[in-house]
């Protein structure tokens, strides 16, 4: 039993050992599985680790780059900051300089205003010294139309057949009066040689010398004439009353001088004066001046002294009267069109339409325009808000009726067939023109006498023209007469009469002016 028990016990122990072995084997397998999983995990972890290491190394590179960039940015920032500091300093410096400059500018502006006031005073003094009455003489060139009567054949049968330029030049010479302009430096003299027959029938050539403030030869341009006149236009801007007359026989160039042609070089004194007034008043804006400019244009018919409104709508039978306002010292023509002027081109258009209206009237009424006085008036009123100054000026540009001598006008047969066409009417008209022209001469002469004798009566009322221009024909105003002369030999007598009339005017001394005049 003991053995059997021992065997059983050994068998049980063997089974237990076998069970243990199986369990251990199972454990071993499980451990081996765990180990494999761990190994796999470890492998993955290693891979992750190496990826992380690579990423870290890349990050560290990036970090280094960023750090370098950061340093560079910081350096640039520093540079910018110092640039900004420098700029701010410069701006402060510039602001200071600007402040200084604007202070200087204000001082200069003030000085300019004072200089402008001084210039006005000096300009006026210069004009006064030159004479408040001045006379210019202008001889027009010989025109193709002067030759055309002879070249083309005239009613008097004086037709000449000319073949060469020499012939034409010779004819031109024959037609031209003997005029000399000896004063090449100052252009103040004109000598007219006229031939006459003595009692014994001998031909005598007599020289007549005249001296004026300026003599313009036939070649002179509108530019040259305006150069002398522009100072007067300036005086008007400065607040003076100015009268510029064109005087001379029909066809001597009065309208050409005053109104002129349509081109830049031929345009006359009226458009040039208007342009200058606009240009100068525009420039004066800088000095604080603001100007209002208005204009009127009228015609005084010489045969009945009626006034026609050239800027008007052409209403027939409208009566206009001249009124002087004693309080304001201004002159007004009733029912006349006064236009606010704002540009030279507007004035050009107005003048052109006035001119075409006159031309129609001239055709209808037998060249009536040359038998009337036209008066273009430009009124300026300026105020300076910064200096408190103000001024009013008036510029009258007058194209006088032709100053024919009665014998020529009456016998010339140019009376035509219109309403004023009879010789009797023509005679009356010429007499009436001469009356109004001599009324003008009388006013100028009386002004000259008044300068020497206080209280002298000035006969302004003797003609509508002088009555209209009363305020601009006084000792305080400036007058310029432009004597227009024909160069033709056939007009020598008219030219002599006109030169003598102009000399009388030139001999008149008004105001402080002193003139050196040589009589004829
Ligand atoms: N300086 C000049 N240069 C060129 N042509 C001129 C000049 N002066 C006048 N003329 C011409 O002479 C002609 C007569 O001139 P204008 O009509 O001006 O004379 P006027 O004295 O005004 O005559 P009216 O009294 O008949 O009006 C015109 O054809 C004009 O163009």
TrEMBL record:
Question: Which SMART domains does the record associate with it?
Answer: KISc
| Gene3D superfamilies noted in UniProt | Kinesin motor domain
Q: Which SUPFAM superfamilies match?
A: P-loop containing nucleoside triphosphate hydrolases
Q: What GO MF annotations does this protein's record show? A: ATP binding; microtubule binding; microtubule motor activity
Gene Ontology cellular-component annotations: microtubule
Positions the record marks as coiled coil are: 7-41, 84-111
Q: Which GO terms describe its biological process?
A: microtubule-based movement
Is-annotated flag, keyword Nucleotide-binding? yes
Q: Where does ATP bind?
A: 248-255
Identify the keywords attached in UniProt to this record, alphabetized. Answer: ATP-binding, Coiled coil, Microtubule, Motor protein, Nucleotide-binding
Question: Which InterPro entries does the record match to this protein?
Answer: Kinesin-like_fam (IPR027640), Kinesin_motor_dom (IPR001752), Kinesin_motor_dom_sf (IPR036961), P-loop_NTPase (IPR027417)
**Domain Kinesin motor as annotated: residue spans:** 132-508
Instruction: Return the similarity comment.
Output: Belongs to the TRAFAC class myosin-kinesin ATPase superfamily. Kinesin family.
Instruction: List the PANTHER family.
Output: KINESIN-LIKE PROTEIN KLP-3, PROTEIN CLARET SEGREGATIONAL
Record protein name field: Kinesin-domain-containing protein
């Amino acid at each position: 039993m003991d053995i059997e028990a021992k065997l059983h016990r050994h068998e049980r122990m063997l089974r237990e050992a076998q069970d243990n072995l199986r369990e251990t084997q199972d454990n071993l397998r499980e451990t081996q599985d765990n180990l494999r999983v761990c190994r796999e995990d470890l492998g993955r972890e290693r891979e992750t680790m190496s990826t992380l290491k690579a990423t870290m190394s890349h990050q560290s590179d990036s970090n280094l780059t960023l750090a370098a960039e950061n340093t560079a940015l910081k350096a640039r920032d520093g540079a910018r900051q110092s640039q900004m500091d420098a700029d701010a300093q410069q701006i402060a410096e510039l602001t200071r300089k600007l402040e200084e400059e604007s202070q200087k500018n204000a001082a200069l502006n003030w000085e300019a205003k004072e200089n402008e006031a001084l210039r006005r005073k000096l300009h006026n003094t210069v004009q006064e010294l030159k004479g408040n009455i001045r006379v210019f003489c202008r001889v027009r060139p010989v025109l193709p139309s002067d030759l055309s009567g002879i070249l083309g054949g005239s009613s008097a049968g004086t037709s000449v057949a000319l073949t060469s330029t020499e012939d034409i030049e010779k004819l031109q010479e024959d037609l031209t009066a003997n005029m000399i302009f000896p004063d090449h430096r100052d252009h103040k003299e004109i000598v007219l040689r006229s031939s006459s027959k003595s009692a014994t029938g001998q031909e005598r050539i007599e020289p007549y010398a005249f001296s004026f403030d300026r003599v313009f030869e036939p070649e002179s341009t509108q530019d040259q004439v305006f150069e002398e006149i522009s100072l007067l236009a300036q005086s008007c801007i400065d607040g003076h009353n100015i009268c510029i007359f064109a005087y001379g026989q029909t066809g001597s160039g009065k309208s050409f001088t005053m109104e002129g042609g349509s081109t830049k070089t031929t345009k006359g004194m009226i458009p040039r004066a208007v342009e200058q007034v606009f240009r100068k008043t525009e420039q004066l804006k800088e000095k604080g001046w603001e100007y209002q400019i208005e204009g009127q244009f009228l015609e005084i018919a010489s045969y009945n002294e009626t006034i026609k409104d050239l800027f008007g709508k052409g209403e027939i039978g409208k009566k206009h009267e001249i009124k002087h306002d004693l309080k304001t010292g201004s002159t007004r023509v009733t029912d006349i069109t006064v236009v606010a002027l704002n540009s030279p081109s507007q004035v050009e258009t107005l003048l052109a339409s006035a001119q075409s209206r006159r031309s129609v009237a001239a055709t209808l009424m037998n060249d009536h325009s040359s038998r009337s006085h036209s008066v273009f008036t430009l009124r300026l009123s300026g105020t300076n808000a910064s200096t408190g100054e103000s001024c009013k000026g008036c510029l009258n540009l007058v194209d006088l009726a032709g100053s024919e001598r009665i014998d020529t006008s009456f016998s010339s047969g140019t009376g035509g067939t219109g309403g004023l066409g009879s010789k009797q009417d023509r005679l009356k008209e010429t007499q009436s023109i001469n009356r109004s022209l001599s009324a003008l001469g009388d006013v100028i002469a009386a002004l000259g006498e008044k300068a020497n004798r206080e209280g002298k009566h000035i006969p302004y009322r003797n003609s509508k023209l002088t009555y209209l221009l009363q305020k601009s024909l006084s000792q305080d105003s400036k007058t310029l007469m432009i004597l227009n002369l024909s160069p033709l030999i056939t007009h020598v007598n008219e030219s002599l009469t006109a030169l003598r009339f102009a000399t009388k005017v030139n001999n008149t001394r008004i105001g402080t002016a002193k003139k050196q005049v040589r009589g004829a």
